[in-house]
Amino acid sequence: MASMSTRSAPFADPEEFERAADLLSSAGSITVLTGAGVSTDSGIPDFRGPKGLWTTNPSAEAMSDIDSYMGDVDVRREVWSQRRVHPVWEAEPNAAHRAFADLRAMGRLRALITQNIDGLHQRGGVPDDAVIEVHGTMLRIMCMACGLRTPTPVVLERLDEESDPHCLACGGIQKADTISFGQRLDPDVIGEATRAAQECDVFMAVGTSLTVHPVAGLCDVAMMARAALVVVNAEPTPYDDFAGAVLHDPIGEVVPALVRRVRGTAPRN
């Protein structure tokens, strides 16, 4: 590996890149946690960044509150209107999504835990059974009364006639099959994510501010299980001081470069 170090990409901190590459190359099992920053190159805005959805439009965060959604028809109508024109319908997986799929194909990706609801990891080539969606998916709609799940495009087609389409089975309020503020995370999904954090050699957090718990606490779970932590994010995170390597380079460039370094290497016992 030493001979390859001189060929690393010109990232902001080449030594930090080398540390991250070495940790990943030596790992037999890697668990990845991704946040909104992974999908920005696909045209989907993040939430808390300088140009994030909640930064530029504070009312958007309020519309993510479950009580507001369930109790105010005008909020629901606005959410449906925005859902119809969401950039996810035009988005394509980017280089980072494809790099994670490559990591899985190499047999090195234990699991990919994502806070994203856009389905781009699966479309980028990571098998569905390797993706743990802790915040659900916007690609399905769920009835809040009977639990019926329907593909989102099927419900969106009804917006030409209905501004707040209710469940066709029971008449209940419908919303995206995602976790809103005020909703409880699925304990089975969190349990699966916790096991993935415990059963890896390296835990890699990418494109997430690591400020939202309990998901951010998966870093602690992994480190307590003696896994090394690698953080890739545009802005500093609360876990940077505990990580074996921290990279603030563009995700769409640095993640594929790291995965290329893993290819052709054998994990060290």
UniProtKB/TrEMBL annotation:
InterPro entries: DHS-like_NAD/FAD-binding_dom, NAD-dep_sirtuin_deacylases, Sirtuin, Sirtuin_cat_small_dom_sf, Ssirtuin_cat_dom
Binding site for Zn(2+): 143, 146, 167, 170
Domain Deacetylase sirtuin-type, residue spans: 10-265
Keyword Thylakoid found: no
Keywords: Acyltransferase, Metal-binding, NAD, Transferase, Zinc
EC number(s) given by UniProt: 2.3.1.286
Entries under Pfam families matching the protein: SIR2
Highest rank taxon of the organism: Bacteria
Listed GO MF terms: NAD-dependent protein lysine deacetylase activity
Enzyme class: transferase
Active site: residue positions: 135
Protein name in the entry: protein acetyllysine N-acetyltransferase
Organism: Nocardiopsis tropica
